[in-house]
Amino acid sequence: MLSIAPAILATMTPPTVTPADFWLPIGASEQAVNVDWMFNFINYVCYFFFVLVVAMMVTFVVKYHAKKGTRIRTDGITHHTGLELSWTIIPLLICIAIFFFGFRGYVDLSTAPKNSYDINVAAFKWGWQFKYPNGAQSDNLVVPSDRPVRLVMRSSDVLHCCYIPAFRVKKDIVPGRVSSLWFQCNIPTGLEERDGYHLFCAEYCGTGHSNMNRRVLVLPQAEFDAWLTKQAAWLDEISDDELYFKAGPKIYARCSQCHSIDGTDGLGPTWKGIWTRITTPGGARFSDGKRYEDFIGPGKEYANPEEYIRDSIYNPGKHLVAPFGNVMPTFKGQLNDRGVEAITGMMQHLDEFDAKGAWTKAPTTPPKP
Q: What is the CATH number of the domain that holds 324?
């Protein structure tokens, strides 16, 4: 058995997509075929022995059921060496086979090819940030097809776990450590979010855990290169006067997990009325008893509200608005000054946005005749 199975695995040609079944979603990576083979092998071993044990139990209960008044015999019990060896050796060989192929699969999933394309992943409460070698960043994971991709992952706060069911990969992201996983997907999806593969955090990490759902979008290499170049400079392509309503909502999508703009408090204070609170005496009180006017103004810690907003994004634990805790991660290295300008501008024009952050003054497309 051990000599035949490796040959079968080695000669298997991975299908384009392994179909979904009762237990598993579609498998869209090159690793999926071997993971599914191992999963199904263990499942069918369990099915076989479950049926065997239950069938023998029912048979013995019926055949050897003692009628009323039958004398119970305790003599004549004998030892059967062949039976003892069979139910010891056969399960042992099955367990050795499971360990062998399981360990082989673990090593393969843990060792990325040398030509892998590296993407840095930051996990935080409660979201993901994907950063590419040219400096581009994205909220959804965008990868090239027909090429191994390695995710180099770090956590900004607590324990997270990156899980992509369709690729059959999953890895914990431990604070203070660097984790990695790799995959290769040969099935392009395009940039439409609804067509992408699901990416989850599979480790409960707090009240906003369910907000860490993202998509993996797969592009052919040429399209990926074009997207990468454009993504790295998308903020620079927007004019200053359009920055707050074109870039602001896109960046706010990451902030919306903790900050609303309709007056509802979340894990952080609502943005509704924030510019009035910052610029008007008697605004919100901080955990140390101070108010905005105590450190914003000429000769104070921040010369103007814009400086305060910038520092709050890069050093969120420095001044905490009561009664909220220090749960916001730093966005230093993830959001540049132009991105901060977009957010600041959006805060100054919140009356132009709906509760979901969409710009309401955008011109509507007239209906087709």
A: 1.10.760.10
Judgement on whether residues 320 and 264 belong to the same structural domain of the protein: yes
Measured between alpha carbons, how far is 274 from 271 in angstroms, rounded to an integer? 5
Helices of type H across 197-334: 221-232, 243-246, 248-255, 274-279, 292-295, 305-314
pLDDT tens per residue across span 285-308: 788 778 888 788 888 888 888 888
Q: Which domain holds residue 275?
A: 240-352
* β-sheet with 160-164: strand ranges across: 141-144, 214-219, 197-201, 160-164, 169-173
The residues facing 215 across adjacent strands are 198
Cβ contact 145:225 at 8 Å: no
Model pLDDT, residue 217 = 94
Q: Phi and psi of 38, rounded to 5°?
A: -65, -45
The model's pTM is 0.68
339 Cβ contact partners less than 8 Å away, ≥ 6 residues apart: 235, 247, 251
